Recover the amino acids of this structure.
C-alpha cells in the first residue's frame, strides 16, 4: 500500500510518500480502508522532533482516520465489515491507505454525517466538547477563545454560543478573526495587535489553545472566580502560570487529562451534534496523501484555518 514515511526528524520535506507493508487485522482488530486522515499541529511537532511524546523512527505519522471497515480479526463481529468509522490510532499509522485498528477504538459514523466531517470532529470535537463541559459555562459568561479559527477553536465558538455565553474570539489575522465572527463570535480581536487585550476586555473563562505570552496575557483578563482551560501550545510553550499565582487571583486552572476511554463519549456526542445540524467543523484545506509535506508546511506557516485533511481515497456513500 501507499503511505507517508517519517524516517528522520526535520522540516516538512522529510515526509516522503512510498510503499509500506500491508496491515492485517489481528485479534481484536479491524482493517480500515482509509478515506481521510486528519493532520494536526501536534503532528508537525512530532515530525520536527519536539513533540509531546517520544516516537521511534522510521514511522508512518498520523493519529486520526476515517474510512470503511474491510476485514475483521479474531474475536470481532463480521457485522462491522462495510461500516463507515472513525478512529484514533495511538499516534502513528494514519498517513496510509489502510490501517489496522483496535475494534473498541472505532466509532461508527452516523448515516446523516459525511465522512470528512466526522474525521474533522475526531480530535477537535472530543476536545471541544470536553472543554465546554469542564468549564461549566453558564448563560451570560464572557468567554475568550484563543486560536478561534483553528479546529478546536471554531467548534468552541459554536458550543459557547449555544450555551448562552458571550464569545470573544482571538485569532491571528483579519481572515481568521472574520471566520470566527461568521461562526457566531460576538467580539473578534487580532492577538497580533499590541492592544488586543484592551479590545478583548475582562472575561470569566479563557480557552487557552496557544499558551506562551498570549496565554499569559489572556490569564490577566480573568475576573476573580474565573476559569482558565489550557489545552494546546500553538505558541510553543504552555503559559507560565503557577497554581499559586492563579490562587492569588481567585482563578481555577484546568488542564485536560482524559484517557481514550473517557474521550469516546465526547467523540460520539460531537458526531451526534453534527449529524443533527447543531455543530459544524471547518475543513479549511485538503491535500492528497502524497502531499502530506505540503499539509505540514501550511500548518507550520500559520496559513491554515479550521481542520486540515489528507484525502486518501474516494469517499464511500453514506449509509452503513
Amino acid at each position: 500500500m501507499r503511505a507517508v514515511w517519517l524516517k528522520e526528524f526535520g522540516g516538512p520535506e522529510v515526509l516522503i510518500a512510498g510503499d509500506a507493508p500491508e496491515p492485517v487485522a489481528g485479534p481484536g482488530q479491524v482493517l480500515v480502508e482509509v478515506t481521510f486522515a486528519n493532520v494536526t499541529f501536534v503532528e508537525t511537532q512530532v515530525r520536527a522532533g519536539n513533540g509531546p511524546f517520544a516516537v521511534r523512527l522510521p514511522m508512518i505519522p498520523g493519529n486520526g482516520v476515517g474510512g470503511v471497515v474491510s476485514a475483521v480479526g479474531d474475536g470481532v463481529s463480521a457485522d462491522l465489515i462495510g461500516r463507515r468509522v472513525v478512529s484514533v490510532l495511538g499516534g502513528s499509522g494514519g498517513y496510509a491507505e489502510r490501517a489496522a485498528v483496535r475494534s473498541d477504538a472505532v466509532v461508527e459514523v452516523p448515516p446523516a454525517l459525511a465522512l470528512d466531517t466526522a474525521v474533522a470532529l475526531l480530535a477537535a470535537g472530543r476536545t471541544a466538547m470536553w472543554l465546554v463541559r469542564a468549564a461549566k459555562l453558564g448563560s451570560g459568561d464572557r468567554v475568550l477563545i484563543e486560536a478561534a479559527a483553528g479546529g478546536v477553536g471554531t467548534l468552541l465558538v459554536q458550543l459557547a454560543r449555544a450555551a448562552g455565553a458571550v464569545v470573544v474570539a482571538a485569532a491571528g489575522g483579519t481572515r481568521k478573526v472574520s471566520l470566527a465572527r461568521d461562526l457566531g463570535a460576538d467580539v473578534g480581536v487580532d492577538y497580533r495587535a499590541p492592544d488586543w487585550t484592551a479590545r478583548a476586555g475582562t472575561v470569566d473563562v479563557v480557552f487557552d489553545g496557544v499558551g506562551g505570552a498570549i496565554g499569559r496575557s489572556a490569564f490577566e483578563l480573568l475576573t476573580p472566580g474565573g476559569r482558565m482551560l489550557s489545552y494546546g501550545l500553538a505558541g510553543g510553550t504552555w503559559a507560565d502560570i503557577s497554581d499559586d499565582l492563579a490562587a492569588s487571583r481567585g482563578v481555577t486552572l484546568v488542564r485536560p487529562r482524559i484517557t481514550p476511554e473517557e474521550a469516546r463519549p465526547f467523540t460520539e456526542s460531537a458526531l451526534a451534534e453534527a449529524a443533527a445540524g447543531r455543530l459544524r467543523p471547518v475543513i479549511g484545506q485538503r491535500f492528497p496523501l502524497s502531499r502530506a509535506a505540503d499539509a505540514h508546511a501550511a500548518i507550520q506557516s500559520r496559513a491554515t484555518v479550521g481542520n486540515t485533511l489528507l484525502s486518501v481515497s474516494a469517499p464511500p456513500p453514506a449509509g452503513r
User: Anything to note?
Assistant: The CA atoms of residues 3 and 18 lie 6 Å apart. The radius of gyration is 20 Å. The chain has nine helices and 15 strands. Residues 115-135 form the longest helix (21 residues).
